[in-house]
Amino acid sequence: MSLExxxxxxxxxxxxxxxxxxxxxxxxxxxxxxxxxIGLIAGVIRTIxxxxxxxxxxxxxxxxxxxTAYIEFxxxxxxxxxxxxxxxxxxxxxxxxxxxxxxxxxxxxINTGAYMAEFVRGGVISIEKGxxxxxxxxxxxxxxxxxxxxxxxxxxxxxxxxxxxxxINIKDTSVLNxxxxxELYFQTKTVAGISFKYFExxxxxxxxxxxxxxxxxxxxxxxxxKLEGPENYSMIGQPAQVTATNTKES
Length: 250
Fold this sequence. Notes:
Layout: H1 3-45, H2 54-76, H3 79-94, H4 100-126, H5 129-137, H6 142-157, H7 159-172, H8 184-195, H9 199-228, H10 238-249
Helix pairs in contact: 1-4, 1-7, 1-8, 1-9, 2-4, 3-4, 4-7, 5-6, 7-9, 8-9
């Protein structure tokens, strides 16, 4: 790999790399946000207690079956296959001509929503039942309990998993080149085809993917520390306090 040629290639094609990285981030950010909303709604619905009335119970059961089918399908199939089916399948079966960027955001959103739904459901289940009972004891209904007591804790608990899903989305946008989305992988492949060199352009793409994912990781760790509070990270003085307490008790 010639360093001089690589630098020349970067200087000549940096707008393509920049546009590709920007498109990758755009799809990943919007897809993760929409997917998080979908997952939050689906996860909460799947944890609603079984109603006493038969009509409501049957309605909830039907909705849960639909959500389960959605979650299992999108978790059990590759995103590249989903992209082909949704983009080309909708055009052939229904005559719907989707915008490629809009289709990419839609695909990432519903794929992310399937995973986020399980994260949310697991987060709700992990909350102690005593908190639900305490909320009911002071007159809160299920919706008020979820909004004021449960969901703030769930969002904090699933933040690492959400960040990990965001990083996965940044990398998985590369499969969207099959529907012609001009993300980073697509632009890199174009540069490689023009220059007839493959190692150098894809090495640059590796660096760009790493910079994006590593930056996101650092930002998420910062927010995790802020949410947890400084007392969980600073242990200064705790042994002395424990010793003093034990001395007084003695």
